[in-house]
Amino acid sequence: MQSILWISARLPAPLLQGDAIYSAGLIKALGLSGSTRIHIVGCRRAEGLIDYSGLSPAEVTEAPLPSRRRMMSLITQLPQDACTLASQPLQQEVRRLLQAESWSWIVIDHANSGGLLPLVEAHRGNASVCYIAHNAEGMIRPEIARGFGITPRGAVMRWDAVKYKQLEQRLLKAANLVICISDADAKYFSRFNENVRVSPPVYLGTPAEIRKIESTRPRSLLLVGSFNWIAKQKNLERIIQVLCPVLQRNGIMLEVIGAVPAHIRNKFDGKFTNLTFHGQVGDLKPLLERCRGGLVAEELGGGFKLKVLDYAFSGLPVFGLEAALEGSTIDEHAAMFIARSIEELATCIVANVDDIDALNGRQLALFNLASKRFGIEPAIRRLSAAFHEPISPPARVVHNA
User: Fold this and answer.
1) Which segments in the chain show pLDDT lower than 70?
2) Which among 223, 251, 260, 226 is positioned nearest to 239, based on CA atoms?
C-alpha cells in the first residue's frame, strides 16, 4: 500500500474557497483509487469547529491558525502567504510526520505550502515528491500586481510576485510529478518539469435534476465567490461598477453569494437597486434554482473558476468572460454565453437573458459536457495513473525562468 503525506498548508476544509474544493476533490479521488493511505497536515483555516469528514478516510493533523507576519515576509525569500503559513507549529508537525515513517509520496499542495519545502528536502528519504499547482504563479502574480499600478500596494505585490515565481521554480525543481488544473498551465509547467499531468477539478456535490427555465423565473444573475484575496475584491468591484448600471436599466438583478468585505458592501450600499449581497449561505440550491444565469467575469487571477461547476451541475446557464474561463474546452465554451470584455458581457446578458430556448439549450449542453469531464470516476482514473505508475528521478528540462 502506498502511503502519502499530503502537506496542505491551509487544510482543505471547510469547502468555502476554490483552493480547498480543488484539493478535497483530488484527495477524495486518490483515496478511492485503491491501495492508498493519505495523511493530510496543515494549518486550520478558521477558529471554531471544522468538519473534516469530507476528507475521510484520509487522516488529518492540524496546526493552529497561523498569526499574520506580513512585515516579516518582506525580509525573507518567501512570498507573504507562504511565509505566514510556514508557522513554527506546522513545521513541528511536518517534521514529526516526515520522521515517523518512510512515505511513498510527499505532496506539496499549492505554492503557498512551499515554505515547508526545505523540511521536505531534508527528510524526504526515498519518497517521491508531487507538487499540486493550483495556478501558474509565475504568470498570474505579475499580471495581478500590474493591475494595481504604480502604488505602494502595487510595489509590494510586484515584489511578492517575484518571490512567488522563485518559489514555484524551486518546487518544480524538487518535484517528480506536477499536477495542474488546465492544459494552459501544463504547457507552462512543461518548460521546467517533464512529468506534468492535468487533473481538472472534481465536482463534489450531487448533480441536480435539471429543471427547465421558464419565462416566470426572475431576471436575476448569480455571482458565487470567495472574496478574501485582494485580486478577487478588485474583480468584484469592477464587475459591480460596470455591470450593475447596465443591468439596472434593463431590470436585471445581480445577486452576490459569499463573504464580501465590509468596505465593499459599504461602498455600494444603496447605490444600485438591483444589487443584493446575500453573504455566506448554507444552501445555494434555492438561489441556483431561481436565477437565470451564473456569472464568471473575473479579469484578474487566472486559473479555473470552480463556480462554473456549481452552475453547470445545477442547470444554470453561464455568462462569462473568455479570459475568466481558462481550462474550459471549445465545446464547453460553445455551451456558454461568452464575451471578451465586461462591457461586451453586459450587452450579451441583456441580449440573451430573455431567450428562454437559448438558456435551456446551453444549460443542458453544459451539464452533459461537465458530467463527462469533472465527475469522480474520470478523476480516479487520472490520479491512479499518476501516483501508481513507476516514477523515475525527475529529468528536468532546463530553461531560464
Assistant:
1) 68-74, 390-401
2) 223
pLDDT, one tens digit per residue, over 365-393 is 999 999 889 989 999 999 999 998 766 55
What CATH number labels 220-373?
Answer: 3.40.50.2000
Give the chain's count of helices (H) and strands (E). 16, 13
**Residues 30 and 206: beta-carbon distance below 8 Å:** no
The pTM of this model reads: 0.84
For cell 519518497, name the residue: 127
**Measured distance CA(278)–CA(123) in Å, rounded:** 47
Evaluate the CA torsion angle 80, 83, 84, 85 in order and state its sign.
Answer: positive
Q: Which three cell numbers stand for residue 128?
A: 517521491
- What sign does the CA torsion over 143, 146, 147, 152 have? positive
**Nearest Cα to Cα of residue 147 among 299, 344, 304:** 299
Query: Around Cβ 78, how many Cβ atoms within 10 Å?
Result: 22
Any residues with CB less than 8 A from the CB of 133 and at least 6 apart, and which?
110, 111, 168, 171, 178, 179, 180, 181, 185, 189
Cell digits for 247?
443591468
Domain 2-202+376-388 bears CATH identifier 3.40.50.2000: yes
C-alpha cell belonging to residue 165: 515565481
DSSP states along 229-286: SHHHHHHHHHHHHHHHHHHHHTT-EEEEES---HHHHHHHTTT-TTEEEEES-S--HH
Please give the grid coordinates belonging to residue 47. 477558529
